[in-house]
Amino acid sequence: FRIVVLASGSGSLLQALLDAERAGRLPASIVAVGSDRVDAHALARARDAGITTFALPLTRGADRATWDAGLTALVAAHEPDLVVSAGFMKLLGETFLARFGGRAINSHPALLPSFPGMHAVRDALAHGVKVTGATVFTIDAGVDTGEILGQVAVPVADDDTVETLHERIKVAERELLVRTVTTLAGS
Ligand code: GRF
Predict the structure, then answer these.
(1) Ligand 1 atom closest to residue 14's alpha carbon, by position in its atom list
(2) Cα of 9 to ligand 1 centre, how many Å?
(3) Where's the Formyl transferase N-terminal domain (predicted)?
(4) Catalytic residue chosen out of the listed positions 41, 108, 119, 166
(5) 101 CB near ligand 1 (under 6 Å)
(6) What SS3 class is residue 55?
């Protein structure tokens, strides 16, 4: 069961998948890691694990559809059974969804449909919720609107900052993502 992971940031979610695979806890193999950022630390984590990486920056003023088609081709070259967006900060467009729709999942640090978008942890904290969490869902054409596959609740502490809350969410999110990918790989 071949997985391509897309990440834009530090890659701690990617690292959880890499660690699970190495520990024999993931019935799948991560065959490539891609990013929209050439300097994403997630790519360094992939390289350290001996995994092929690719990057396709979306340069300012570039045509979005061209970028989407280019990314789709880079992903397709690795013939994935599943694409996992793990902290990938770009919306995937119609070319990508035509090719991988239904076989691409995303992890989001909030209990969707609450707090979609780029600032989920900040928005949850600002709203004063006492419980938030993480959601893994199937990517569709909307923003964080796909079919929910799994969720995990995470308590909010009175003295939480965005950083402390996000770190607590990430601990639960990593387990949820490994569990969800394991289920999909086995189905
Ligand atoms: C995760 O919480 C993910 O849900 C959100 O950004 C974070 C990525 O963290 N989109 P990392 O890059 O995997 O450390």
Answers:
(1) 13
(2) 7
(3) 2-181
(4) 108
(5) no
(6) strand
78 is catalytic: no
Residue 173: CB within 6 Å of ligand 1?
A: yes
- Token digits of residue 39: 């300097």
**Across the strands, what pairs with 39?**
none
pLDDT tens sequence for the chain (187 residues): 999 999 999 999 999 999 999 999 999 999 999 999 999 999 999 999 999 999 999 998 889 999 999 999 999 999 999 999 999 999 999 999 999 999 999 999 999 999 999 999 999 999 999 999 999 999 999 999 999 999 999 999 999 999 999 999 999 999 999 999 999 998 7
φ, ψ of residue 3 in degrees (nearest 5): -120, 135
Whole-angstrom Cα Rg for the chain: 16
Nearest atom of ligand 1 to the alpha carbon of 13: 13
Helix (H, G, I), strand (E, B), or coil: what is residue 100? Answer: helix
- Residue 149 main-chain phi, psi, to 5 deg: -100, -30
Amino acid 126 reads: A
How are strands ordered across the β-sheet holding 82-85?
52-55, 29-35, 2-6, 82-85, 104-108, 131-138, 148-155
Which is nearest to 10 in space by CA: 148, 135, 166, 144? Answer: 166
For residue 125, which of 110, 104, 112 has the smallest C-alpha distance? 110
Distance from the alpha carbon of residue 132 to the mean position of ligand 1, in angstroms? 15
Beta bridge partners of 33: 5, 53
